[in-house]
Amino acid sequence: MQRDGNGNAATEPSLKVAALVSVGRHPVTGRARRAEYDARAVEIGLSLAKGGDLSLVHAGASSPETEAALRGYLGMGPGAVDVLQQPEGSDVVPALESWLRAAGPRVVLCGARGETGEGSGLVPFILAERLGWSLVSGLAEIESVDRDTMTVLQALPRGQRRRLKVRLPAVVTVDAAAQPARQSAFGPAQRGELHRVASEVVPDAAAREWTVAPARKRPKRLKIVKAASARDRFKAAAAKAEGSGGQVLTGVSAQQGAEAILKLLREEGVLR
Amino acid sequence: MSEIVRRDPRTEWIARNRLHPEHEAVLAQLNGGAAVAQWMGPNGIIRRNPHAVGFIGPNGIRRIDRSGAQTAHASGSARREAAAVPSRRPVRIDTPAFIVAVMADMPGGRLSAHDRDVLGLARQLADEGGQGAVLLVSFCESREDALGEAGVDRVVNFAGESFEGYAPEQRLTALGGIERQHEPRYWLFPDSPLGGAELGRRLAARLGERPATQVWQIADGQCTGRGAAGTTDVTRKLPRIVLALPECAEPVSETVHAAAPIDPPAALPQPLRRVEDLGAVAVDPAGVALAEAEFILSAGNGIRDWDGFHQAARVLGATEGASRVAVDNGFMPRHRQVGATGTWVTARVYLAVGISGAIQHLQGIQQCDKVIAINTDPGCDMVKRADLSVIADSSEVLAALVEMVEGVRKEQRNAA
Ligand SMILES: Cc1cc2nc3c(=O)[nH]c(=O)nc-3n(C[C@H](O)[C@H](O)[C@H](O)COP(=O)(O)OP(=O)(O)OC[C@H]3O[C@@H](n4cnc5c(N)ncnc54)[C@H](O)[C@@H]3O)c2cc1C
Q: Which domains does chain B have, with CATH numbers?
């Protein structure tokens, strides 16, 4: 799918877009970086609000490391990011909710899930529920935005796409199906500003009782053969996979064969 | 065959009496003509004749097959019939103590492997807490005939236009109805993109509960799920709403359950429709990665007419695949190769044209649901694997298929 649709997307000049950004973690080195999906969300935001009104917001503790990671987003073009000050181990949803209520964006873009912490991908859902806004997950592309609605393409499994008309304001989540994010440039990243904003702090009490450990390798599932006798077990382990006796059409004309195939394709619903 | 057992006390008596002159003949007759290895003696003691056990193999060596396949006729036909019935234990739960609700994705109306794993987990939770019942909530016409074997006690099916396509708000109100009517102790969802992952999170947000996501293990009231993009394990008390990963539990394999359909809750509130589904967008099937294509038309050494094959793929809207021979001969690009050294495909329908089904190729299509073969050789391995095989020339069948599909399309266009 070509991305030239964005050029003629009917974007109004004053469309307010917000992107929620988090601090990611490089899967190999473990260093703080911009989060992959969030960066894709920012990328969509940049093409949506061409030179317009894209604001970034992050809620979390600030440290030199996280600031360097947040500058990764600034290197993509936006001039500033609002950092809602939250100590470690607090629930970021109330702070983000009140920030969004005050800012009033029409479209909120988020990555599908964070790369640190619980990473459950719940924040967009809770925000949409509390604010009463629409929610679309798995966004591939925003086609056009009007005053009250926008048309988007949603990525389905198996490379398929679905067109949706979404009432604004809307929260959308972005995952690997969206266009990859542009590189972060060093100059803009250093010039961009981090606005520290004081915000309400709600501790995340439930998370205190969890134990968090490095991921254990999951046991591989064994092929369990339930057979009464040793002979059957041996046969199941050694024999080639044999189908459960499918239908075989011999001595039919090509037309009859094609009909049977067509019938199965229809039943399975793969024929469009 | 008649079910009534007719007894002949005299032959039974002769059969028990080893010294009776007709003993051998009667035993052989009872056994359908073969020598008998064991029988009940007059004092109720089992007598054995070791010389009659087994059979003489091709090299003149006595072989003993203990699977029962060879000696099954010794015990009479009635016992053989009993052995043929499935060994799953039927379970009925009429008055469940509580409900474990499972929302299954059911792509194409069938339970996916992920759904079965989650149902296995639900079964585990339902049985641990006493007589719980597993309630399956589905939003599409079920084409699965063995829901009971997956461990489902009750089924609620929300059919209807308003639930079709992408209708998360409608589905959410339906789940809300289930929540009010049945008050499930647990809600389980497969954590699969756009299926359970989304609805589960929506339900959690609506009910204000904190779910456990990416769960892969539940034990002793604790659940373990992946966190931080799969790099950590978060262990916590088992919450009410659980979104589970594939292979979170073994699917049910020992019991068969009732899978009784029950009525969906009446009078669901009409939700505000904020998202409208405008339908699927045509994507170029050639652009879809082979590994995730839904419908693959695959070519092998049995294809002569390559233009016809490409045209068939275009008309059917299928992604093209190939066997190694077709690739090596230069008819198809390397990235289209299916099999051990190519791509492992997951298509729902795999149409193999002129492919013999070498083991290296069959490995690559293990996860395909339906396999269709077009081949001239009825004895080849692909035909054994296939759900439907047409034994005919590949180019003729493909041409007929193309003609038929185009004919139907034209009719539809004229009718519209
Ligand atoms: C290490 C190794 C790795 C390999 N990896 C792969 C792999 O990843 N993928 C793979 O595919 N192979 C692989 N192979 C090759 C594999 O062993 C087979 O050689 C190959 O799959 C056979 O391809 P085929 O079925 O197209 O050809 P053939 O075996 O030649 O079969 C042709 C079939 O077409 C039928 N046919 C002929 N004419 C017609 C007609 N007019 N109409 C209809 N049917 C017709 C024939 O009956 C026959 O069944 C590998 C081999 C090795 C040694």
A: 9-84 (no CATH), 90-262 (3.40.50.620), 285-415 (3.40.50.1220)
